[in-house]
Amino acid sequence: IAGANITEIDVLDKIDHTNQDYAKICKKNFMDSPGILKADPVIEEPDYEQLMKQLPQECFEYSSVDESTKSLFILNGVVLLPENIKTVEDYAFYYLIEEIFYVYGPGVTTIEACAFQQNFRLRKVVFPVVESIGEGAFVFDNQLETVIAPRCEVLGCDAFKWCVNLVHLEISLKELREGSFWNTGIEYLNLNSVERIENDAFDGAAIRQVKAANCQEIEKFAFDKVNQKVEVECGCSLENAVNCVQKKVQSGKTKSGQLSAIEGILGRGIQQRREMKARIKLMG
């Protein structure tokens, strides 16, 4: 073992290198690597507000959290950020040794660059009022499935890069930056607030359908490296965009007219069945 200082071994006078059983480690004085420790079991999503009551009082005195204070806010595999925490600073929870599964930050408005990067067992994050998520904030969080950030309008480059299990996203973006959803697992996105989608926003992603009714610009290579053609519902032209097909945005009047027509057809069918039943009764 490279770099290990083995203090006690049991070997024969002559070692036959074809049989590894001739030598064995009886005792070691080197540490186990955190990367190969047995993983903790996945925990169920807790009642965040109840669990937050167990945080130390010190947690309710900060306005932000950084690398030096992060451990105060981790409890039973959950990152709990009280209402007073407005900012999660750069690299605050980067590559934690302690496994986390959920993050809850009801008062957080800003998540800075790489704040939660490389937390390989993170499953869900909830930020009801966050306004901006920085570059690479959740890179390589490959078990992340759900992101609740309904007021977030700003998303940095590579924010969810390699979130291959991301399937549920609530967000109100104005612009999709390069690499925003690089190699993510999400297949359907409602991005009706988005006005612009940059090149390489979906490189390697599983995306199949995007609704972006108010989008004014989609750059040529926004969907270039997706494995299948993407169906895009938008109001702008896709003439120059590659690897995507356009689905026209239906106006409210069109949808209303279609619904009325369907209701009319159904209504006539019901009336016809009633008349038929009445005639059968008379014939009987």
Automatic annotation (TrEMBL):
Sorted alphabetically, which Pfam families does this protein's record hold? Answer: LRR_5
Entry's transmembrane regions: none
Matching entries from InterPro entries are given as: LRR_5 (IPR026906), LRR_dom_sf (IPR032675)
Q: Organism's domain of life? A: Eukaryota
Q: What is this protein called?
A: Leucine rich repeats-containing protein
